[in-house]
Amino acid sequence: MPISRASIHGQWSSRLIFILAATGSAVGLGNIWKFPYIAGQYGGGAFVLIYLLCIALIGIPVMMAEVLLGRRGRQSPINTMQTLAEEVGRSRAWRLVGVMGVTAGFIILSFYSVIGGIAVAYAVKFASGVFVDSDAEQVGGVLDALLHDPLQLLLWHSLFMCMTAVVVARGVRAGLEQAVRYMMPALFLLLVLMLGYSMAEGAFIQGLEFLFMPDFSKLTRAGVLAAMGHAFFTLSLGMGAIMMYGSYLPGRTSIVRVSVIVALADTAVALIAAMVIFPIMIANGVDPGEKEQFGVGLIFNVLPLTFAHMPFGGLFGTLFFVLLVFAAWSSAISLIEPAVAWLVESRRVSRIKAAVLIALTIWALGIVSVLSLNRWAFSFEFAGAQKTTGMFDVLDILANNFMLPLGGLAIALFAGWVMTRQSIRDELGLHEGLWFKIIYALVRFVAPIGIVLVFLSILKLI
Ligand code: TRP
């Protein structure tokens, strides 16, 4: 069937813009803030290996499925799932996949925005020279003071949510294309520059050993689950964000190619960020084997120290955190876009109203995360992993480790088993051949079975 539908929300102006927007969504705090700290928490090499396997065998197939469903449905994930299911005579209950996705997006953005806010705060601090010639103690002091001041955190969180709402209100195309066009390449360049610094000044080889030499005795069930959850989180999968962006994709673009490009770019950024941070930590006398070092504050502790000792550090530090804010910003937008598009489609409210309404709801939910960094902090154990930031960790585990993979499972099953083989082949623009067979098998079998196995393992059933 030829693609006849058009999205009421518009379309990307080119394939490149889709790649930039999807990369903008994928590359964010997940790569730079989160990946290094969980790689440390879960013991390094073996965790990283599982994470890479999850990207290749689960992430990329699910991404292709998401883009494909989005482009075929051309609506918000909730309505896309319903329409596509009805087209093949299946239950409209498939829309629940979209509903769960929107819910996951709310939860994720609520804490994402708090961290995004901290990144804004750091950009401002650097620009005003707070970190000039600081030592480890002073840097740590700045972070501590911020984390223990709920009012200040709330302020930065509010600012970040406002920024997100403004872009989404303008429409993703007008609002986003310009931002991702220059910021993403700039961030990448700066990271490569920092990598050079880490090679020259850090304990580079030891850092690489920690990151890439798998020691399976350090791998836990919680680590495997977290590796899979993070593969979804970092590629923006499982909640409909990429499906939404796929719905703006021009008809003839190769879904296979764009998915692989986005996944590679995202993985490269995460690995480079980790290769910057670990050698520098080790050179500063911090043992990555000590789990207490790792937590939400990791990059905010390590990076300012780096810049403090670098020539033109104030300038580079400012630039880095400004770019990090842009990366987080272009990710946050994709977390809220499915919900906004759904309100516009189904309730006929204006984009502006929808954006404000949803941003306010998520902002309020964010207060939980703000307080869990200080007043409400508590620690608990999850599958053998010690968690110290209370509700923040609960929301993080719930959304990333359970809701996203569950959504991804449903999406892969829908593309692999509910839609016809013919329609998938047509959408992918492939002929019946080895290449198609491999991709189809990944979507039908490998990805779903992989997800189920990880879930079984956390339930201690295997
Ligand atoms: N991928 C982004 C990051 O790594 C976060 C993100 C944006 C996301 N959109 C998403 C995560 C959708 C899950 C689902 O920072």
Structure characteristics:
binds tryptophan; 462 residues; mainly alpha; 76% helix; 1% strand
Helices and strands in order, then pairings?
Elements: H1 15-26, H2 29-41, H3 45-73, H4 77-87, H5 95-127, H6 136-147, H7 150-170, H8 172-201, H9 204-212, H10 221-234, H11 241-246, H12 255-283, H13 298-308, H14 313-347, H15 351-372, E1 380-382, E2 385-387, H16 390-418, H17 421-428, H18 434-458
Antiparallel strand pairs: 1-2
Helix pairs in contact: 1-8, 1-12, 1-14, 2-10, 2-12, 3-4, 3-9, 3-10, 3-12, 3-16, 3-18, 4-5, 5-7, 5-14, 5-15, 5-16, 6-13, 7-8, 7-14, 7-15, 8-12, 8-14, 9-12, 10-16, 10-18, 13-14, 14-15, 16-18
Bound molecules: tryptophan.
What does it look like?
The protein has 462 residues and is an all-alpha fold. The chain is 76% helix and 1% strand. It contains 18 helices and two strands. It has helices at 15-26, 29-41, 45-73, 77-87, 95-127, 136-147, 150-170, 172-201, 204-212, 221-234, 241-246, 255-283, 298-308, 313-347, 351-372, 390-418, 421-428, 434-458; strands spanning 380-382, 385-387. Strands 1-2 form a two-stranded antiparallel ribbon. Helix 10 crosses helix 16 and helix 10 (221-234) crosses helix 18. It is globular and about 65 Å long. The model has no long low-confidence stretch (mean pLDDT 93). The structure holds tryptophan (TRP). Residues 25-26, 28-31, 108, 233-234, 236, 239, 241, 331, 334-335, 404 line the site of tryptophan (TRP).
